[in-house]
Amino acid sequence: MKKMAEQKLNRSQTGVQQVEAETKLIPRTRDKSRKRNWLYESLDISKLVHYDTVIRNLPFIFFIASIGFVYIWNSHYAEKNVREINNIEKQLNEKRWEYMTSKSELEFISKQSEVATMVAPTGLKELQAPPKKIVVKSNEQ
Length: 141
Known about the structure:
Elements: H1 2-43, H2 51-56, H3 58-109, H4 112-119
């Protein structure tokens, strides 16, 4: 009997030791749960997305959405203008090259020697002597 009483006493002592050990562990888990609760509460957006909050902030939400649409439209418009400017610059360069080519051809064709060769088949010839100046005398008294 004594042995059974001693075993019960040992069991109760070990039970007490277990309870004490568990009570020492409980505050640690509570600290972790408090940290978790604080983190969860700080990241919890259900307070912000409540029906009343959404309805109350609907004009602001529409305002932000309209600013987003204007921003997107503006970027597309700017890109379209940049593409158009690039095309116009290409056309301008082509016209400049065409102008320079035409100008050089005109300068070549308008040289005296070229004009003489072009007009030779029609029977015109270059003057060998300098041109004579014609002076008309008026009847002034």
